[in-house]
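ingest -> validate -> predict -> emit
validate: passed (alphabet ok, no gaps, 390 aa)
predict: started
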Amino acid sequence: MSSIHDLRRLGAFLLLGAVAGAGIRYYVETRARHTRTAPRLIDWQQAQHVALRMVQEDNAPALDRAYRTAQYTRLVEQSEPLIADYMGVNLPAPISRVYVFDRQEWLAANFASFEKLFAPIEDLYLSQAANTNGLTMLMRDANSRLMGAQVGFLLGFLGRRVLGQYDLSLFSPDPSVRGSLYFIEPNIARVQQGLGLNDEDFRLWIALHETTHVFEFEAYPWVREHFNGLVRQYFDQLNQQITLLGGVGQLLERLVKSINTGQHWIEIMLTPEQRRLFDQLQALMSVVEGYGNHVMNAIGKQLLPSFEQIERRMQERQQHRPILDQIVFRVTGMNLKLVQYQQGEAFVNAVVTQRGIAFAGKVWERPEHLPTLDEIRNPAQWIARMERAS
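emit:
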């Protein structure tokens, strides 16, 4: 009986294999007939589907949108002259693009930005996929859907947590394009109510920080172009790495050799040139975020009656993140980013304490004045370099 059973099982496996093979052939032939281009690196429809499902779980709309839009506009207008006076610089034009978003609207805006960000790699990927066979195309399609799910999860995760955002179209060909301020009201309301914070004070606390970012990029236009250039150079390096024969094997070898160095896995995977560009980007963003925090704190302490309460409860919230948040932060490298931002704030605080806010403003004079990561960790080195340059 067992031999008959085995034969039947073998026959079933062969039948399933034939059906699967026919299914694959049908899929590939159908795709070849109906699709002119190979699958993209990232299936953006899949990404949007995953992200939307994540943010729709608790169905949180932006309540009282008209009232909140007027409130945030007023808070930004209140913040602008205070920041201008503290930083000693004015914007080329008043801030006018203030938006109250729900989570789906925030996702829509950021998907557009992400597609532009990944466009250089997408172009390379598609050029390499032009002459692939049917089975390879099938694998690429599966990989595209997987990548789409991963990007969708990340944006969906952030869409439930981001409070405010300054969005400057970094890759726009028009250098005069103004940035936009997004306030994700469902997330802000959840945190404000959950931590028992004052409605007006908490939203002004957020508005101060995001408005400072407007000054950093729009009062000093070179910052945008410098950031844009670093990102493009980084992707150019990544493109070259992808095209190298055995590139994946090299990445894995580098990861295995460095597994016990204590470095973050993202840093381990970088080539020397990528690491140089990555460090410059990290240093720039550390200064951007650190300076923003410093300005928010300096003005907020004088302006907000509940400033200390907001700071204390927000810090407690960060220190008690759910396990899922901790895992996502580690895997995506967001924990590395937070450490750099904390160092950036410590750097700005140290410079202001020792030399004053006007001296700290030298970071915005030209690209050569930006601190390195080593100088961010040792502010005295940057202070000495600036004094020698003056």
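The radius of gyration is 25 Å.
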